[in-house]
Write a structure and sequence with these properties.
The chain is of the alpha/beta class. α8 links the parallel β6 and β7. The longest helix is centred in the N-terminal third of the chain and has 17 residues.
Length: 219
Amino acid sequence: MLYVFDLDGTLADTAPDLMGTLDHVMTQAGFATTPAEDARSLLGAGARALIQRALRQQGATVDAAREDEMFRLFLAHYETRIADETLLYPGVEAALDELERTGGFFAVCTNKIERPAKILLEKLGVIERFAFICGQDTFGVAKPDPTPLLRTIAASGGAPARTIMVGDSKTDIATAKAAGVPVIAVDFGYTDRPVQEYSPDQVISHFSELPKAALRLLG
């Protein structure tokens, strides 16, 4: 069984470093910082969307060239602090160990750009656990389009009928449903509404619950 994980808000609590980077970019561009408590509603769709959402929140707009400049600054600055405060969520590695013992293998499908996704997973010490890591730019299309998930499954040597998606947001749930893949949602990630409202197949509140949730899906 292949388990495909989202990254931000699912495997790792990346909000402190992402929001710190956002504040750096926004202040460099002459805008205000963003309250940390807004992270759950702003994160989850990638760096460019994060910048766009932060600007919208302030009632601000920029032209395409300036947005590109802010995006490039975001990526460059983020790599300098990518794992300063970011941590895997409790129980991640133990859950992977347990799933692996029953034949599970793993991949990542994130709306993060591929390069920082790989850098982060390496710094967190878990990159070798994933057969394939797909970023927003890997296949030129982002979630909730099902293409990156389906191509991640293929690249990992899996099959949709033997795959479970694990994510934290409406985007992940919509992606899995469009791909015809069951989805388990964590309820501690980055979403502005309770993840249960988007009708995932299972909801967990801690990674220790993941193996049993997977078993329920498998009947």
